[in-house]
Every structure is written in structure tokens, then in C-alpha cells.
Amino acid sequence: MTIHPRIAEVTRRIVARSADTRGLYLERLERAAATGPARAHLDCSNAAHATAGAGPDQAAIAAASAPNLGIVTAYNDMLSAHRPYEDYPAQIRDYARRAGATAQVAGGVPAMCDGVTQGRPGMELSLMSRDVIALSAGIAMSHDCFDAALWLGVCDKIVPGLVIAAASFGHVPAVFVPAGPMTSGLPNDEKAKIRQSFAAGEISRAELMAAEMASYHGPGTCTFYGTANTNQMLMELMGLHMPGAAFVNPGTPLRAALTEAAVARAAAITARGSEFTPAGHILSEKALVNGIVGLMATGGSTNLVLHLPAMARAAGIHLDIADFADLSEVVPLLARVYPNGLADVNHFHAAGGIAWLVRQLLDAGLLHEDVLTVAGHGLSAYASEPVLREGALSWEAVTGPSLNDRILRPVADPFQPSGGLVALEGNLGRGVMKVSSIPEDRHVIEAPVRVFDTQEAVKEAFRDGEFTEDVIVAVRFQGPRANGMPELHGLTPVLSVLQARGLRVALLTDGRMSGASGKVPAAIHLSPEAADGGPLARLRDGDRVRLDAVAGRLEVLEADFAARVPVKGDLAGNDFGTGRELFAGLRQRASAAGDGASVLW
């Protein structure tokens, strides 16, 4: 199938925009690769330190006679998504030996959970943890002893941080190894209703806790289609997973077989063999476009609008918000997974999952097939699903219709003709809005604004009964330089209650919302942020604001708006507690949201 003209056009302009930086990146990659496996050049003392703890693999590693795989892991046993990784290092060492290789844990990276820190001071470290993860992984890989790397991570900032590090070591082949989603628990829509009932004071905290425990009940990724599961989709469409690996549950024979296949593949694509596949070659302009297409086709998390530019930058590629918006216009919405529908990711996987989705998008010319992946040349391998037949792993092409057209639909009959994201621009700056889960009659909201500097102040106004008319709630000083750009997902139940009462409401912020933000219109990632004197800092209570996702406009309808002097926010409360003092210097150098809100560049 010929590539869609818009896909080709956006790809061409990304290539042109990135020509200089991508060229320099690839030159550095080739120079690093040309030196060969660095372990072979270690002197005796260096090699002894590198192998002293390797047990039965010590001689093989020291002799540099076989591929040595570095493991970078986000394991901890507090977070369900990363709990399965506890046993992976031992398993991977065994799998590596079977493949004629060795493996060592190069290092660990932090993995924090937005579900734990949501609405709390720790959330102000969340986004910046992505860059800390990249730095930590860089330290792990700096020993320069590995022929390929296995990257173990799942959730919100962890995968983007690991990708940034993998791109920085782009001459080293990289295979991302997922852990899979937990089995389905309490349906996500029931959980959301219970949260709204609690916010409205209709049920007790004990009832709320029982529902939450029934939702998040075991090892594996949360089952809604938030940032964590959007990451897993991206790793497949960008060719960094083994095909079909994303949504296989932990602790199953198929999960173990896919992990073994990932290890064997990592050993096969090193510079020692004939299939050398550096990570930096996989992370191409076409791969990133494929990732954005997958984001739009599935209605994925808005957090990836921050993460993808940061990931791209590490590979010398520059993305712009306009790239996301222009691709969204031509990519139909093919999936409805909570909060964009009632299904969870296990239901999505059972209906056909990523393999069926990739087949549809390839046949419609909406994905670049001619890309390099860890599975080889061509994205078509990802239109097949893994199966175990008598204990042997193989891949079978996905054919036929979706097994549930309430969850997955073909390009010819999509849920919506365009994707799930709109770029917004106007006298309030630039931002984005996820529209895939928003009813069409709420794509345009015009109402007076109420201005707040904290999300707790919004909740207090709600408890005091102050919201009785249509309103746009503006929460400012939530950007990366102000307080690390926390998610404001804790406002979703409050705003949902107001919407359920018949009010037309929307959120306006220079902060973030998670991939589980629900059905309330939210203009987010506004830039320049208020702490930089951005337009939000000139907003006043009562100003008439128009949020128009159809036209892509975000305007304050007040004649004197441009002439106002921006207010200064009181940011002193963000400086201390829960480790925030350690990040003060980083906040000061954070880039704008449109550039990935990164402290690395």
C-alpha cells in the first residue's frame, strides 16, 4: 500500500527539520560502533572488576568470547507493574546461556508511580524522574561492557527515560522487555463512578478503598489505557519490542517464552553477528511517526506528547506539536479502551490487539512499513501475534475482522474519522487537548474562567459549593519550571461531578493530565507557562475564555488581555519536602512543554 500523502509530508518535514542534528548523531553512532565491543579493549584490572561477580559466566565474559548483554532494570516490589521483574535477571542469565551469550545487571533505575503520588507533593518529581531515569541508565551503561542491552521498564516516565538512554548509547542494540498487564479486576468505568460518588460525598472512604483495591489487585500494569500501556503500544510500533509482547499477562508460559525470545534476539543482533542492529538506527524519523500514528489510532495518553519529543531529541530528531496535530487529522480512531471506552487492555488484546491494529494501519498506508526493528526489516512482523504450540513459540499473521467491534474497528469503519489529539493555539499560548473521549457537544466550551494556583484550591472551592454555573477552571503555575509539571488527575472526579450536574466545564492548565483523565475537556501543557510570564499569568477571574477543539483555538475574549502585567506566583511552597529541594536547580533549566519539558537539553 502506498503511504498516505499526509504521513509522507509530515515525515519529510521532520527529516528536513532534523537534518543537521540527526546527521551529527549518526556520525557519532558510527564512530562508536567502529571501535567494536568495548569489553575486548579493557585492561586486565578493568576486566577483573567487571567480571568478579559473574559467577559461572566469569570466564566467558573476561574472554570476550560471547555476546554480553547488559540488563537495565526498573524493578521494585512496591509497584505492581515492575514487581514481575524481580525474577527476570536470573531468568535472563539462563536464557542468555542457552543463546550462547552472557548477561549482567548493568544497573537499576528509579520507578515511581503517579497512582501513589497523585495529588501529593511527590507528584512534583514525577515528570523529572524521566530525565533522572535516563541519567541513571546512562551511568549503568557507562561501564561500556555490553554488546547489547535489555531494557526492563513499563510505566509512565520509565520507558521514555530508558529510550532516551538507549538513544544516547545508540551504537548498542537495544531490546525492550515488558512485564505485561495485570489480569482484569473491577471494571474501570465502575471505579470512575465510585470515585465521583466519593467526591460528591455519597459514599464512605471505606467503600472507595474497597473499589480501588479491587481495581489494582495484583502484579502487572494497571489495565486502563493510560501512559504505561500507551508506552507499551509505542514500543511495538517503534520496533523495540518483540512483536506482540506488550499485553501478555505476567506469570504465563507465553510471557516467559517472549522474554526468552527477546534475550535470544538481543544476542543475535550484536556487532558480532551478521544482523547488527544499533538502537539509534531503529529510532528513526519514520519510527517516531509510526509511534505518533499509533498514539492517535488508539487515543493514547497525552503524556506522550511530552515524552516523544524528548525521546526524539536524544536521537537527534526534532518533533513539533504541529506534527501530532497534522497526523491526528488523517489517522482514524480505531480503538476504544478505557477511559476512551469500557474495555481494558486485556479486552483490547483479546479483540485483536496491536497486531490487528498494525495490519489495518499498514493496509491503509498510515504506517511506514520500511523501518528497522529488533525483529528485522519491516513493520509487517508486528502484524503477527505470538503463540505457543506444544511449547514452541511462533508468530501467526492476524487476519479476519476484529473479534469485538465495540473495542477495535477497521479503518473503513472507525470510531472517529480523526485521531485523539488536537493542538490548540491562541492568545493563551500553545497547548494540546485529547478529544477521543470527549463528547462532540463539548469540543467547544465558552464560559467565564475561575483562576487557581493550586489544585487543592479548586477542590476547596468545590467543597464550598462555589461552582454553580458553566465554568472554565484555570490552574496555573503547574508547569515544569514552576513545580515540575505534576499531573492534575485528582481534579477529574470533581470536574466530572460538575459536568454530571449539567454544567459545561473545562480545565485549562500549564500542567499535565494523565492518560486516564476521563471525559472532561482539558487544555493542557500550555506554553509559555505562567512561571515564565506566560499568558496564563495575565488571566483574571471572570474573563470570558473560548476553548475550541474544532478550530484548534484557545482565546481570552477580553480587549485588555494583551496589555496586562503578568502576576508572579508564590512558588515557595514547591521548594522543600519529599525531595523537592533536590530538584530546584533542575526546575530552573527545564525546557518548554512543546520541547519535551526536559532538563537534559
UniProtKB/TrEMBL annotation:
Class of enzymatic activity (EC top level): lyase
Domain named Dihydroxy-acid/6-phosphogluconate dehydratase C-terminal: residues: 407-597
One matching Pfam family: ILV_EDD_C
Binding-site residues for [4Fe-4S] cluster, renumbered to this chain: 155, 222
GO molecular function list: 4 iron, 4 sulfur cluster binding; metal ion binding; phosphogluconate dehydratase activity
Catalytic activity: 6-phospho-D-gluconate = 2-dehydro-3-deoxy-6-phospho-D-gluconate + H2O
The protein's role, per its UniProt record: Catalyzes the dehydration of 6-phospho-D-gluconate to 2-dehydro-3-deoxy-6-phospho-D-gluconate.
Protein name stated in the entry: Phosphogluconate dehydratase
Organism annotation: Falsigemmobacter intermedius
Gene: edd
